[in-house]
Every structure is written in C-alpha cells, then in structure tokens.
Specification:
Elements (H helix, E strand, L loop, with lengths): L1 E4 L1 H5 L2 H13 L3 E6 L3 H11 L9 E4 H8 L6 E3 L2 E3 L3 H14 L4 E4 L13 E3 L8 H13 L1
The structure holds magnesium ion.
The site of magnesium ion has 6 residues, from helix 1.
C-alpha cells in the first residue's frame, strides 16, 4: 500500500512517528512524503533537522513543485512564514491532486483542510488521534482499503 506522511506536525514528531513508520515499512508498505516546500528543501530538512534516512522513503512530493508544474501562471513567493501562493483555497486542494496522480492510498497529515476530493476517504488527521493509537488507526484504514 502507498502511505504518505506530511512533515510539519507529523514526521516532525520524530519520537512518536518513527516506530509507526518502521512498522509500516516492515509490513511491506511504501512510504511517501508530501509537504509544502520544494523537494530539495524537504529532503534536507528530513535529514538534517529530523535525522531521517532518506532511503526509507519511496518518493517525495511537494505542493510548491506541483503548483509550479501544473499552474505556471501562479505567482509563488516566500515570506517569513515560508512558501506561499495567492490562493489558500487552491493550496488546500493540491495534496489531493498529488495523491490522486500518484495512487496514494492514505495520507497522514495534521491539517484537516487537505481532506477533500480524492483524499476525502483516504485521510488520517494526525493531531486528532492519541499518539499511542495512530498505528491502530492506520491499520484499520488499510483493512478498509483492502476490503
Ligand atoms: Mg503539517
């Protein structure tokens, strides 16, 4: 199964999420990363800031890179909060587009705004679930998808 994780608020919660990622890897699932920042930045952050070995991830997807490729007319800027596009409404749809394009079966993210379109029934909101329960929620979701 293709399972994707957000960085900020999910993979950034290294101590709690690493055991979950490791168990999913051991069970043979492919783990992907989806974040806002361009892929080269997210790889650096995962490695340098959070201590991940990049080889555990099958692929990396970026909201900004996706917007650049699919909507060249959009004015992308960086401000003190980070990467920014002029439309919040557009921003929140992009992870669903990325997941649909790449056959992601499940996204674990802390921002519920991304739960729309293709992701409507393929989404686990990380910060609504107790840390100890997150793996169980993922396993149940996988069972549902396999059904
Ligand atoms: Mg986040």
């Amino acid at each position: 199964m293709n399972i994707a994780f957000d960085i900020h608020g999910v993979l950034s919660d290294v101590q709690n999420i690493i055991p979950v990622v490791n168990e999913l890897l051991a069970a043979g699932h492919d783990i992907y990363v989806i974040s806002g920042t361009p892929v080269d930045e997210m790889k650096e952050e995962l490695e340098q800031k959070y201590g991940y070995s990049l080889s555990i991830f099958k692929d990396f997807f970026s909201v900004i890179d996706h917007v650049r490729r699919t909507r060249p007319e959009v004015d992308i800027t960086v401000n003190s909060y980070g990467w920014w596009i002029p439309s919040d409404e557009m921003w929140w749809t992009i992870k669903a587009e990325i997941c649909e394009e790449n056959n992601i079966d499940l996204l674990i993210d802390d921002s519920i705004e991304y739960m729309q379109g293709y992701l409507e029934d393929k989404f686990i909101c990380y910060n609504l679930i107790e840390n100890n329960d997150i793996l169980d929620f993922i396993k149940i979701a996988i069972e549902e998808i396999n059904r």
